[in-house]
Amino acid sequence: MKEKLIVRLGELGITPSAEDDLALDALLLGAKRRLLAETGQKTLPQALEATVVDMAAGEYLFFRRNTGRLEGFDAGQVVRQISQGDTSVTYETAGESGSPLDGLIARLSTPPPELVVKWRRIQW
Predict the structure, then answer these.
(1) Inter-residue contact 56 to 28 (CB < 8 Å)
(2) Running DSSP on this structure, what letter comes out for residue 123?
């Protein structure tokens, strides 16, 4: 999954350094544990792997921003909404919901509730 995380970060315009290797592993493990705890699953369903990657990417952005190491990332144009019929793209601006980067981090770090509910199991 680390390769998928590196590709996802690349899509966001970020190339993790070699010294971030252990941090990527830890972020993936933390995201996986969080999702397993939220769903009550014992093993991660394959359909949730992309969600774990997104969660880890959001945590990586949060980590890098708060340590002052998020250089080269253009947070000025974060896409808020995309429509496919007749192609419409809406960009988030800082005045609407805080920083666009904050919105991106929140969206990536928090799995969609409907996805978590779909995979939720009751623990006895």
Answers:
(1) yes
(2) -
Question: Does the pLDDT value for residue 98 go beyond 80?
Answer: no
Torsion sign, CA atoms 49, 74, 112, 42: positive
> Could you tell me the CA-to-CA distances from 82 to 2, 58, 79, 88, 92 in Å, in that order?
27, 19, 7, 6, 11
Length in residues, the chain: 124
pLDDT over threshold 60, residue 83: no
pTM: 0.75
Cα–Cα dist 1/96, whole Å = 34
Q: Determine the Cα–Cα distance for residues 37 and 41; give it in Å rounded to an integer.
A: 7
Contact of 50 with 11, CB cutoff 8 Å: no
Helix (H) or strand (E) segment spanning residue 88: strand 88-92
Beta carbons of 40 and 123 less than 8 angstroms apart: yes
Residue that the structure tokens 């609407």 belong to? 96
